Amino acid sequence: MTGAPLVSVIIPNYNYSRTLGLSIRSALAQDYPHKEIIVVDDCSTDDSLATARAVPGVTVLSTPANGGSAVARNLGVAHASGEILMFLDSDVALAQGAITEAVDQLLAEPSLGAVCGMYEPEPLIRDSLVEEARCLQAYYWRYDSAGSVSFLISAICAMRTAVFHEIGGFNPRLRQTEEVDFGERLSQKYEIRLTDRMRGAHDDDHELLALVRKMFVRGRLRVPLYAQRRRHAEGFETMARSWAALLGLLAVLLLFAPLALGPLGWLLPAAAFSAVVVCDLGMYAFVARRKGLLFLPAFFGVLLVFNVTVAAAVLFGAVHWLLSPRFRRLYDREQPAADRTGGTAQGATAGTGPGATAVRSESREETGEVVVP
Fold it and tell me: What are phi and psi of 87, to 5 degrees?
């Protein structure tokens, strides 16, 4: 690539009308001049399409049926003109200079497969303490992992279009963890870099039950991939944090120890809870500095729920992996015919690969919307 390449910013969306406008405008406001903005709506049931159409200078695509983020991103790529692709989730608003930084790094290092940004420590729209705690955790884990990683943070990431096609695009069979699968394939050939010089504010889930459900599903679905590669991802999924999740579950179970051991039994869960903190001491120190000591008990309580959820998800996924050959093949690119008709929790979508198109055709010059033929 020479000069200032065109960057195609692709924003997949499903029912995020609340933040979609903020996301689109943050991309349009970037100081990098050579860009196109493509919104791919995945059959939202809210007013997302109206929100996207209301912003001039944006191309809007619609999938023919709800197929997940992988399908939406691939469809956006199929209609992108840029030499560089930038993926931006519709619940993220980019900080100024993010596109320029991505282009500079990709141009400077041809061996760089993708450059990923990180979330701000404060949510885009603060709705609850749960969301606040989640954003602090997400920021610190990414900040602590800056550098070469083996996972893709598809919420804010950029790569050469040629590299995307070389890797094969996002697997349209995966409705969850598609970015984990893509990152694993990409990192086998190229470096993936996580940098704090590309940032964006994220509107995370604010209801604890919804967030726990999402974490459980995603944790369980990672098990077949981790079983294949037999190693942790390079980055924030450290061994210490894995131990924190297991110790969190153990600590909760040990709360029943006093029933059998009397008052001395409280020493066991206290020790386990202390070990949870020690396993990620840097994060708790960061939160204490930023929010104050009085915030720590609430933060620890929310993170304990997260740790227990992750541990339970991995244990459940391990049992599922042992019992189900189909689950073990979840990340295989070529599936037996019987498996192509559906998936476990992931589902399947036919004809929605990187070059796939939708089934309707219409254009609207005033908004740039295209419902793809």
Answer: -95, 130
